[in-house]
Amino acid sequence: MKKFIAIILSIIIMTSTTAFATEIPRESTPLNVTEEQICIVENLIGDILDEVQNGNLGYTLAAGYANTRIRKAVIADETNGHGYGILSPIAQNAIRGIRDKMLRPETYNQYEEYLKNLTCRYSY
Q: Are 72 and 46 in contact (CB under 8 A)?
């Protein structure tokens, strides 16, 4: 019974920690990437993206950590055949986008309102 409760608790903890991880903004990804590649990068660097969003990591340090993790995962063949050359730009763009949004929230809010008005005006 104790093992069963321990297993259930560990599953709950694992799912709760991954549920709050920062997602990669899809608008920041390179054009030629797949959803699978984005998910691989999210799994590798989700906690780094959280730290960037919270303001605890700057771009350079976060990019270095992300590149190291991606390189190690590629070498260990943990990326389902996807290489460093495609996974690294996904991470770099995500870090840059999240960092920019954190530093200039008023700009993003302004454009979000503009796009909402534009979409409402031209929806049929």
A: no
Query: Are the beta carbons of 94 and 49 closer than 8 angstroms?
Result: yes
Supply 84's token pair: 């460093």
Q: At residue 26, what are phi and psi to the nearest 5 degrees? A: -65, -30
Question: For residues 59 and 33, what is the distance between their CA atoms, to the nearest angstrom?
Answer: 22
Q: What tokens does 91 get? A: 């991470």
Query: Is the pTM here over 0.85, yes or no?
Result: no
66 vs 111: which has the higher pLDDT: 66
Tell me 26's DSSP state: G
**Cα–Cα distance, 42 to 38 (Å, whole number):** 6
d(CA 89, CA 63): 10
Q: Which among 67, 45, 62, 56 is positioned nearest to 96, based on CA atoms?
A: 62
d(CA 67, CA 97): 16
